[in-house]
Amino acid sequence: MDSPTSRLLATATLISQGAEAKVYKAYLHPINENGSSVQPHSTERGEPILLKHRFHKQYRHPALDTTLTKARVAGEARAIIKCIRYGVNVPGVRMVDAPAGVLGLEWIDGKSVRFLLGGGAEGVEEVVGESEENEDEEFIEEDPLREYGISQDDIMRMIGSEIAKIHKADIVHGDLTTSNMIARHPTSPKGLQLVLIDFGLAYTSTLAEDKAVDLYVLERAFASTHPASEPLFASVLNAYAENMGKDWLAVSKKLTDVRLRGRKRSMVG
Amino acid sequence: MPARVRKRSPLKLPERPYIALGLEGSANKLGAGIIRHDPDGATTVMSNVRHTYITPPGEGFLPRDTAQHHRDWALTVINDALNKAEISLHDLDCICYTKGPGMGAPLVSVALVARTLSLLYNKPLVGVNHCVGHIEMGRQITGAQNPVVLYVSGGNTQVIAYSQQCYRIFGETLDIAVGNCLDRFARVINLSNDPSPGYNIEQEAKKGKRLLPLPYATKGMDVSLSGILTSTEAYTTDKRFRSNGPSDDDGEDVITPQDLCFSLQETVFAMLVEITERAMAHIGSKEVLIVGGVGCNERLQEMMGVMAKERGGQVFATDERFCIDNGIMIAQAGLLSFRMGFQTPLSKSTCTQRFRTDEVHVAWRA
After folding, report:
1. Are B220 and B169 in contact, with CB atoms under 8 Å apart?
2. Is B25 annotated as ligand-binding?
3. CATH fold for the domain made of A4-30+46-106
4. Is B151 annotated as a binding residue?
5. pTM of this prediction?
6. pLDDT tens digits, residue range B159-172?
7. Residue B43: which domain range?
8. CATH, residue B330
9. Does the ipTM surpass 0.90?
10. What are the EC numbers (chain A) (predicted)?
11. Cross-strand partners of B96
12. Which of B104, B116, B227, B310 fits a 20 to 30 Å CA distance from B214?
């Protein structure tokens, strides 16, 4: 199998493996002799891209796996493009190879919100392990947010308004967690931005119900990864409510309903 | 996790052997089990007796009839358990019973037996959450330390991970449980309920070849199963469906009940493995423990094994003695909390149909 995609994957370096896919850093165009000296954003050449490879899941029936992979890659690309059209901060799409399960996205220079809120970065636990007995205390104590020049509340407001944008475009993200949001570094060409990533489970819906479930997923993710930051979620909702305008009422009603769901909850009243 | 610090378990080694009787009857199985915790930390299963209420093909078990079954069999099953363990009720330290979740009427009838024995022999009662019982027994039997737990049975479908003295639910079904989905489909195609509908589905699925398209409904960490059941049922009214297998004059394009069992299992299990994998990636665990009745399904175990291997982890599963509802798991979880000083006073020895896994304070773990 020597398709351009597989050749690209062969030159890429693996960054992490999530539940769905392996994530690589690659260069769309190999750097030529002059390429390296060119300004990074004056041309595409030499700019890194992120490859998301949904590899074949051995446990799944091959037929089921093929259809799911294809549908998810194409669906993710479509959702991202729709987001771009509505002015949501998302990574740009660089290449799509649905049958191979590969999606190439713009490389975003920044840190995940999960990391910024002190929830640790996903998947890098093994790397940090060694250095603990030396005076790392200070380094850990330092708030990563300071580097970005914003407060926790600022981040929450940015999250709220970004989610409101996708919901107003009738896109439901489907997997909102703090690991799926990246704060673009202030020194990058586009400046500080909150970027939503991983639209693998995204779909289109006009229902307040689906939007409320989206928010509920985020609420649970907050509760499970950042135990002390529940009041912060309220600030996400405030910003969300402001940006949603009159649609907020319906979503907020549904959100109350959704919170009561789940099986075998004790019923009070 | 920088430097795996082994936290000291709050559970101290017992100064003498402790013996507990566990009574389980939250669904159609009535179980009695006796467990012993020795001062050297060893755990012995002294007896584990179960009697299942089996209904004719095409019928489920109704709460009233199931409760009647439990009342009829309670004494036989408990005596049997005592004889096999070669002890008398006087030797017990506590009597554990299922407080919930489960069907109301069967729960109540078993709790009544537990209460009566407790008063007759003056033994303390311990009410146990059924799900926690499954998890604790699975951990005990397999030796898994801190696994992501997939709890799949006729009434429950949950992905669970332990954190801060609580079994937290990461994902669950939004409508019906996976065992319920399989059992109800078994009823549609008239499979026998003996030994269990799920087992018969598994055997039929081995003969299926064709994967029919079914909805694939994962929502984040959660799954939805009722629509899949409806779609699978819809195939039985398809004009290509042959309930007695293909006849000679049929072409290739036929659907057999075996194909439907196969497709249903493949789709539903792929969803379960997927949400388990999500939970593992989320919390960074490499161990999976499968508990609950559907956990005996070898295809599910196989798929989970492949997934765990891809992630460099390993899967733990138990056989039908401990997977399917049993009394011993209630005894195990009950005795753990009893050793931490927990008792259920008689006035509070009620049952509840709704009792979530995350409501239990897991005092015996660090």
Report:
1. no
2. no
3. Phosphorylase Kinase; domain 1 (3.30.200)
4. yes
5. 0.84
6. 999 988 889 888 88
7. 18-137+323-348
8. 3.30.420.40
9. no
10. 2.7.11.1
11. B22, B126
12. B310
